Structures are given as C-alpha cells and as structure tokens.
Amino acid sequence: MLKIAHSSIYAHPLPEGHRFPMLKYELIPEQLLYEGSITESHLFAPEKCAAQDILLTHDEAYFQRLLAQQLTASEQRVIGFPQSEQLTNRELVITQGTIDCALFALEHGCALNVAGGTHHAFADRGEGFCLLNDMAVAANYMLHRNLAKKILIIDLDVHQGNGTAKLMENTAEVFTFSVHGKNNYPFRKETSDLDIGLEDGAAGPEYLEMLETTLPGLVDKVQPDFVFYLSGVDVLATDKLGKFKLSLEDCKLRDKFVLDLVHKHKIPVTVALGGGYSPDIKDIVEAHCNTFRLALDLFD
C-alpha cells in the first residue's frame, strides 16, 4: 500500500500573516479522504528526526542554535518565520517524514510526504520558509546506510533548490536537477548538476516539451536507483510568486510524466510537495491532490 506522511504538527499555527501557507497541510489529506482516494490506512504520522541523522547534512552549531531558539532576528527574517519550539519540531517531523517515505518507497515503489521539499535550507542556515533540508537529509541517510548508490533529485518547484544544490555539490552519488524561474527567488542561484532556468511567463506547452526532451535522457545518463521528486505547484498561472503560466492540467501532466517515467524504469520515488502560493486555496489543494491521485493510480 502506498504510504503518505502526515502529522497534525504540519499545520502548526503561526502568528497572523503566516497562517495561509499552512492551510494546505490540513486540507490535502482531508480532501483525499473525503473523495475516497485514500483511507486512514494510507496515512502515517512521523516522529521527530534524530540528531544523528540531521548532522549527516547540517552543521552541529546551527542545529543546536535551532533547538535552543537562538537564531538572530536577521536569520529569522531570511527564513520568513519567527522562531519557536513548535516550528522547529514541525521541521524535524517533516524531515523524518521524508526519510520514512524513502524507506516505504523502497518497499512499495512510491511514498509521499504531505509537506517537505524544504530545498532552501543550507548546512548552516535556513532560508525561504525552510529550516532543514529534508531531501538532502534523507538522501544522506540512505547513502550512509547503503540503501541507495545513485540518487536523482528532481526539483520542479518554481524556485531553484539552492540549498540542495550547495549541500550536494561534492556528493557524486547525488545528482541535482532543478527547473525554475530564471528571474525568480533565489536571486543568487547556486549550481545544481543540471539547472534549467525558464523565463517569466513560461507556459504549459513550453514547459512540458522541455521536460519531455530532458528528463528521459537524464535518467538514462544518471542511472539512479532512487529518486526524490519535489512537485511544487507554484508553477501555476494563479500563483502570486511563481511568474509561470501553467494550468492545473499542465501541472497534472507534469506530475504524470515524472511518475510514469520512474514507474516505467522501476525506480523507487519519494515525493514532497514544495511550494504553492495561489490566492485561492482550492487551486493549491487541487493541484497537490492531483499528484497524490496520479501516484495512487500507478503505485497503490
């Protein structure tokens, strides 16, 4: 059975002005349960990630300051959230969720984290709503335990996975692939193993053609035995931060292409949701739910 990581702490309430991005973490599993796409047996609640696993990726000094709520005001501004014990615990649970999903994917072919995709976190700092880099932590976890030999991270969030690129720049066993807005955040890009920066206004046909002409050859070249897929829906035309012009159907076709490809090659895949900032929460939830529905059709 396909497994989905979800915890009530994912929707941890934040001060006024920060709550909207968190709503989807409650609404996505509720919608999937309501429509009958999943049952409660699909869902599991992760625990907090162990320090020893975090420290395979993140600097100990930064991690200890995170736990002790000792980030400076400047660091909190760069992250975009005020620090709190609840927020730190939330990030630890999300990170463990991605690790657990990787283990379930080895068994079932695919697993999804309702949260995750915190790709702006660096070894020694957080950025862009990200405190810890869940996919980098999970990738290092798997390599450290010899559960994978070659990992491909497919990052299709509209924002470049700068933290992931930097964290993995000297790890030959992990290939980072990012498709993002050329002129979008982060304005200082890091160097992934393969970056494709698209211009503002990139629409569905252009985007999907790029993916179809790039990803199959990349999979053949890299020969991964595990894939992490960051399926951000901030590529939607409705997204207030995205600057792309993909429709809901385009976004669904993107996810279908990626999931069909890894399924065809029998490569286990863990999916994390990444960003989504459309003003109407229904657009965000529907786009993310499509990702789950497609995975359920293929792997459940």
From TrEMBL:
Among CDD domains, the record links this protein to: HDAC_classIV
Q: Name one Pfam family in it.
A: Hist_deacetyl
- State the superkingdom: Bacteria
Every copy of the Histone deacetylase domain together lies at 21-289
UniProt-listed InterPro entries: HDAC_classIV, HDACs, His_deacetylse_dom, His_deacetylse_dom_sf, Ureohydrolase_dom_sf
- Assigned keywords, A-Z: Hydrolase
- Membrane spanning stretches: none
Q: Which family does it belong to?
A: Belongs to the histone deacetylase family.
Name of the protein: Histone deacetylase
